[in-house]
Automatic annotation (TrEMBL):
Species of provenance: Adonisia turfae CCMR0081
Protein name (Swiss-Prot/TrEMBL): Uncharacterized protein
Domain of life of the native organism: Bacteria
Lineage: Bacteria, Bacillati, Cyanobacteriota, Adonisia, Adonisia turfae
């Protein structure tokens, strides 16, 4: 199954215009894409919204036995 990858402009001016809910949705979208590829973005590793969504999707895909050390590092936050 092919998944459509959404591209979003993330220039500073565009991000300022987003509401808090839209920023959270954007972070969740990044987390979902990163989880599918199995590579968490270190830029967001201290963001609870990102970490929770990333781990939720990653565990659905590979189970807890399939998590990498980088995945487990996100459980700290």
């Amino acid at each position: 199954m092919l998944r459509e990858i959404m591209t979003v402009s993330t220039s500073t001016d565009d991000l300022i215009r987003l509401s808090e809910v839209e920023r959270i949705d954007l972070l969740k979208g990044y987390a979902e894409q990163d989880a599918i590829f199995g590579s968490p973005n270190p830029r967001y590793k201290q963001c609870k919204v990102y970490c929770d969504r990333y781990l939720d999707i990653r565990i659905q895909l590979v189970g807890t036995d399939g998590l990498t050390d980088a995945d487990w590092d996100l459980t700290i936050f």
